[in-house]
Amino acid sequence: MKVIATIAAKEFIDGFRHRWLVFASLIFALLSLAVTFLGPAIGGSFALPQLPTTISALATLAAFIIPLIAILLGHDAFVGEQEGGTLLLLLSYPISRWQLLLGKALGQGAILTATVVIGFGITMIALIGLQVAGVVELLAAFGVFMLAASLLAWAFLLLSYCVSLLVSSKGRALVVSALLWFVLVLLYDMVLLSLIVAEANGGIIRGLILFNPVDLFRLVNLLFVGDVSVSGVLSLITNNSISVPLMWASFGLWIVALLGIGHWLFKRKAI
C-alpha cells in the first residue's frame, strides 16, 4: 500500500504542478455558474433558479465536459511514459504493474474528484447563500451530483488508460479516446432514440442505458431531485421503476471492470 500511495501522491502533485487542478476547477465553476444563473435569463426569466432545474442543467453540462476532461488527463498516462522512456525505468524498480496502474488511477482520480468538488461546490455555496432551497436539501442534491460526477470521471479516466495501454503513440491514444467520447456521449443516445422509433423492446433499451456511464450519471441525478421534465430515452427509466441502487452498482461495475481490463492489458503489454 505504501508503494501505491507514493505513486498516487506523485500523480496528484504532478497534476497540481501542471495546473490541471486549477484549469478543470475553473472550467467547472464558470460553466456551472453560467448555466445556473444565466440560463433563466436567456429564457426571459429573472427568478431565482429552482433546484431540480439546476441539477438537471448541470447534469447535462457535466455529461459532456467531465468525460472530456478525464480523457485529456489520462490518455497518455502509459503510452506517453513509454514514448519518453520513463515507463521502462519505473518498472525496473520493485513496483508491480498492478501497483503502478492503481497508483496512477488513485492519484489522477483524486485530481478529478477535487476539481468536481471545487468547481461545482462554488455553485452550491452560491445557491445556499441565495436560499434557493433548504441547506440540507441542497447539500444532499449536490452531494449525489458530485459523487456521481466523480464516478463518471473515474470511468472515463480508466477507459482512457485502457486505450493508452493498447495504442503505440500519444496521438493515436487521443484520437481513439475522443472517438469513444463521441460514441458514448453523443452517438449512443441517438442510436437508442432510433431503437425507440423502431419500437424495439423497452427492456432491452433500458438495459442498454444502464451500460452507459453517461446516462447513468444523468439518471441518478434526475431521479434524486425528481425532475419531471425528462424526455427521450431517459424517460424510459424515469417512467418505470428501476432500482436506483442498481444504477449505483452499475457505476461500481464500470470502475471494477475497467480496472480489471486495464490490469489485463498492462500485464500483456510489451515495454
Automatic annotation (TrEMBL):
Pfam families on file: ABC2_membrane_2
Segments traversing the membrane: 20-42, 54-73, 85-103, 109-130, 142-167, 173-198, 219-238, 244-266
Superkingdom classification of source: Bacteria
Organism: Ferrimonas aestuarii
Key word Transmembrane helix present: yes
Record keyword Transmembrane present: yes
Name the record gives this protein: ABC transporter permease
Single Gene Ontology MF annotation: ABC-type transporter activity
Keyword vocabulary terms for this entry: Membrane, Transmembrane, Transmembrane helix
Assigned GO CC terms: plasma membrane
